[in-house]
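[Meeting: bench + compute handoff]

Bench side (C.D.) handed over the final construct sequence. Compute side (W.E.) agreed to return the predicted structure before the next meeting so the bench team could plan truncations. Sequence as handed over:
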Amino acid sequence: MWTHLGALLLDVGGLLTCGVSSLLLWIPPLVILNGPSGTDPFVRRHARQSLNFAFTELIAAAVLVMTVYTSGGLGALLAIPLVLVIWIAAIVFRILAITTATRGTPYDYPVSIPFLR
């Protein structure tokens, strides 16, 4: 649960800092995964899921930034609405992950690329 909550707080903090802290979404799950609480299989599973989702978000952000730069700025017409949709979906998925982890059941992010298993 703390893995998802830390990432959610960074996501909300990203709104306040114009998205800068959103680039650091991979730090809370990595710290929890490598910390003393990372020995519990349930915590490890959720930390890996959260880390995979954070990496997926970073890849999506990089693709959108490259789209804007390679199109000479015209890609911003597509990228700005997509960034908002991705950001809102990420918050919803993290809230679902927190509530599911609180109940003690595993949660899989729906659009996450499984880098870590």
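W.E. noted at the follow-up: The chain has a mean pLDDT of 77. C.D. will use this when planning the next construct.
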